[in-house]
Amino acid sequence: MPLKCRPMSAYTHTSPHHVLEHVFGYTAFRGEQQAIVEHVAAGGDALVLMPTGGGKSLCYQVPALLREGTAIVVSPLIALMHDQVSALVEAGVKAAFLNSSLDAEEARRVERALYAGELDLLYVAPERLMTPRFLDQLDHLRDTHRLALFAIDEAHCVSQWGHDFRPEYLQLSILPERYPAIPRIALTATADRQTREEIATRLRLEDARRFISSFDRPNIRYTIVDKDDPRRQLLHFIREEFPSEAGVVYCLSRRKVEETAAWLQEQGINALPYHAGLGQDVRAEHQTRFLREDGIVMVATIAFGMGIDKPDVRFVAHLDLPRSIEGYYQETGRAGRDGLPAQAWMAWGAQDVVQQRRMIDESEASEDFKRLARNRLDVLVGLVEATTCRRQHLLAYFGEESGPCGNCDNCLSPPQTWDATEAARKALSCVYRTGQRYGTGHLIDVLRGERTEKVLERQHEGLSTFGIGSELDEKRWRTVFRQLIAREYLAVDHERYNALALTELARPLLRGEAEFHLRLERERSKGRGKSRSAARMDIPGGVPTTLFDRLRAWRAATAKERNVPAYVIFHDATLREIAIARPTSMAELGGISGIGDRKLEAYGQAIVDLVAEVG
């Protein structure tokens, strides 16, 4: 990556708004960005939770340009480093990365620039940061007062209970001990309360100021369908909603990834496979094509995605149930990073749950980890079986209240339900009668009147709730219990082997003061139904199609010439604004969001000429 030459600290001591506007091309901060920037720029530590597409990068990039010296950004993925640095260099910022993609001479050149204090930001993997050689370089920067800050991106990787655990992140706890005067900012888009506390503890950020933004992604429509020939359902969804647009399709196994990608190719979809079993060169080639070409559909395992900074992914589809709410949120969050309409679509079936449970049970993880994994799976199943707003369920998991969104499948087409009030009361009564000490499986045995060894040993065949639920099969009872847990009528005690206990919310239901309804499974249908494409927006908001298409074509050619992804030049949202505003001068173009001084100078005249040419 070539290093742009400009005087070090050219932006230092200017205001956050000056940097935001003149470097990044935005006239105003969003949400808590300004508070975070000012806090870190002043030397404070921060723990930032902000949804994908919320502008996390600016929270450390702007302070990096405000403070003296070089900011060290810890990033877990090479692809993310490349994209971030490419975008910064395009904006005129002196940035670089150190990773295994560089040859020895390139790495030495970057190290010399770092040692000389010529970089604003340097991206490194945690493994490299912790080497004695690199720490010696950081010591030099510290001693010469040229170490600006540490930014720890994808901070949830420090969580040993999480879905993206990276053991190297645990070593980052030495930073405050070795560099106590250097501010640190840890950022993630995905963390429930438990993970937040784990991040703070393991990174020694207990005293850091916390900034928790809304987890809501209002531009994403959540749609979950029952599996019924899922490949055909997926194809119908892509063709009806987002033909010729970029998307990601997640599958659980490598074999399914390859078979699905091949089948989509046969149907005329520009699809590529991605999983850890492919050769490194193949993975790199497919990832590069996805990032740099328009309209690629990546079919992948969860080996693909973390840190992918492509803003114009219009959909994320799941052909298998994810492992947890956190995984689902993070994976679906890769859609619509530009703020334009996008969809999170999933096809699921009961077999998915069976398969996931088997994978948990057969894993070599500890029993504590397995219990947590089972509970997270149950909470996710609660989301897919929900009869009310999907977004409300999703946000509630992260401790956030909201009203119905009006934009998910349940809001747009409320499902049929059955009155499960009596079944729910029986379940809650059984939990109480058995002493609130048992998990779902044993409780179902009692309700169904099964004289199992465990039931007889505990003499539960003599309870008043024994056999009172024989009219429902085990599958239906599991649905009842999952939803009682998901809606917080029951709490799971992980320390007591997933024993269920009543919560305060259970009282009105037990007393007959509340009702409980569950989704009624749809019957299999040969028909595919009519597509609702309100979220489909090839050219959003009345944008002139011809001009928008010409702008995208110009962007693609420019990106190819500069050997960077197209969105590094401009996001779709910026092209959309240009197509609507139709600027006739450089001054008018400079007022478009996402066009900073460097990009205006580099591309402004070409865009103004193109607008005039289209007329």
UniProtKB/TrEMBL annotation:
It is an enzyme of class 5 (isomerase). It comes from the Bacteria. Keywords: ATP-binding, DNA damage, DNA recombination, DNA repair, DNA-binding, Helicase, Hydrolase, Isomerase, Metal-binding, Nucleotide-binding, Zinc. GO terms for molecular function: 3'-5' DNA helicase activity; ATP binding; DNA binding; four-way junction helicase activity; hydrolase activity; metal ion binding. Pfam families: DEAD, Helicase_C, HRDC, RecQ_Zn_bind, RQC. Its EC number is 5.6.2.4. The keyword Hydrolase applies. Residues 37-209 form the Helicase ATP-binding domain. Residues 541-615 form the HRDC domain. GO terms for biological process: DNA recombination; DNA repair; DNA replication; SOS response. Residues 230-380 form the Helicase C-terminal domain. GO terms for cellular component: bacterial nucleoid; cytoplasm; replisome. Its cofactor is Mg(2+); Zn(2+). It catalyses: Couples ATP hydrolysis with the unwinding of duplex DNA by translocating in the 3'-5' direction. Belongs to the helicase family. RecQ subfamily. This is DNA helicase RecQ. It comes from Azoarcus sp. (strain BH72). The gene is recQ.
